[in-house]
């Protein structure tokens, strides 16, 4: 593949970051063979490809893990709170809960659902009909 050229490739480009939903993924939630091929070719030119998403890591890994070896898996997850480079977490910023304790308690008093996404898991404060349904559909669900 080294003899293949990427039309208009700029040698100054070192990183390409791409959203998943509505950008990389098609309407069926799949990555097209053409997109996979292009991502593989970027590495041949020394260009790092990264997913940038609001999704939790496991929801990104389900896609990139299907066609990229771990050492080529790069992504920015949870809207920038987690950065993975070559399959290794290099940055993780957790949301401080203590300053928002009263707000969270107010949500609970009102019977509103409130959940945290941390340690790559969806963690509701209490079980509701919705969270119980989600438990059957979300990898990484934890009570």
From TrEMBL:
GO terms for cellular component: cytosol. GO terms for molecular function: magnesium ion binding; phosphatase activity. Transmembrane segments: none annotated. Pfam families: Hydrolase_3. This is Uncharacterized protein. It comes from Hungatella hathewayi WAL-18680.
